[in-house]
Amino acid sequence: MRRRSMSNIYDELVARGLIAQVTNEEEIKELVNNGKARFYIGFDCTADSLTAGHFVALPLMKRLQMAGNEPIALIGGGTTMIGDPSGRTDMRKMLTKEDIQHNADCFKRQMERFIEFGEGKAVFYQNGSWEWAALTGTGDGQYGLDRDRPRTHSNTRGWRGGR
Rounded CA gap, 45 and 12, in Å? Predict the structure, then answer.
């Protein structure tokens, strides 16, 4: 992918209300503006197709990727399996690991229309996988990013940490 010059993408994201909280703002700003940020946005794959809500995050991921940053599409396998009750009065259908894997595969195929995956491009992980644990240094089974890295919280619910 050809990297576009977007020297002040960070300020554009702030102006559009896409960054809600930041630690070490100057460091984050430098990483994002110089195409050196690795960030993730999480998705629960409770169905085999992305929803309109999922599509809100994809243009942001694409824009940051075009500026040279590395997106991680993170599937929340645990919350997909047990359900996230946020704002619900009914119980979500319980999914098997096979259902979740099928849905995750469908999500990736749909996301590939927007985001470039591959070596040095975007990556796709399930947060319970050993690859995710190795990437984040959470081999003890706990999910999350290295607590010493600067991070920002976006209104699209993903944490970003530097490479």
Answer: 29
pLDDT single digits (tens) 61-87: 999 999 999 999 998 877 777 666 666
Quick one: DSSP state of residue 32? H
Q: What are the backbone dihedrals phi and psi of residue 152, each rounded to the nearest 5 degrees, phi first?
A: -140, 150
Report residue 96: phi and psi, to 5°: -85, 165
Stronger pLDDT, 93 or 111, i.e. the higher one: 111
Q: Which helix (H) or strand (E) holds 39?
A: strand 37-43
Which residue type is seen at 25?
Answer: E
Average pLDDT over residues 79-103: 75
**Please, are residues 138 and 7 in contact by the beta-carbon 8 Å criterion?**
no
Give the C-alpha separation, 144 to 153, whole Å.
13
Question: Which uninterrupted H or E stretch holds 153?
Answer: strand 151-154
Buried b (16+ CB within 10 A) or exposed e, 147-160: eebbbbebebebbb
